[in-house]
User: What shape does this take?
Amino acid sequence: DQQVKQNSPSLSVQEGRISILNCDYTNSMFDYFLWYKKYPAEGPTFLISISSIKDKNEDGRFTVFLNKSAKHLSLHIVPSQPGDSAVYFCAASAGSNDYKLSFGAGTTVTVRA
Amino acid sequence: ETGVTQTPRHLVMGMTNKKSLKCEQHLGHNAMYWYKQSAKKPLELMFVYSLEERVENNSVPSRFSPECPNSSHLFLHLHTLQPEDSALYLCASKGRVAGRETQYFGPGTRLLVL
Assistant: This one.
């Protein structure tokens, strides 16, 4: 049973525009959410996270929004750059110190020059 | 470079072979993980070791056998695998980033079972 879903397997965006990646979850116990970025031939790297006590967290060009009532989070990248082309995974856990993360299937982002 | 290394990076094996995957971290983390990533699927958690003790075995077939001899090293021993076991196997360790726990991943071992 997949508890974290990324329904868009791919996204193509022009350089300089905004990329919006979406993620939905079903487990109401999740209270800590992360985004990972993965380049080919590399492992995922941590990008940004948000705790359920917040509805927004910003780090440079990356902003994560959390809508707890809708069990939905999104990652905004603005402006998008060619180096942002990668696979983005959404992940969630129940408790910020919990050892277990549930991952989505990933969204492949392609930024066109 | 996350500080988590995995060897080999690529592995081709027959169904009767025995091989081992190795993961190493010197980040001082005390929890380590094995994940399986198949194409277009979420990362599947296989095993978790915390302080060298296995705390999670996610219904993984016995043809996968983990070993954690110390907090810096993690192995995945493989024997009599099936073609459907072909996937990317990722190791991770758990540490803190900006005061929050997160997982640091190695580059993975791309496994092909013939």
Chain B touches chain A through 28 residues (CB under 8 Å). The longest strand of chain B covers residues 87-97. Chain B has a mean pLDDT of 90. Residues 18 and 79 of chain B are 4 Å apart (CA to CA).
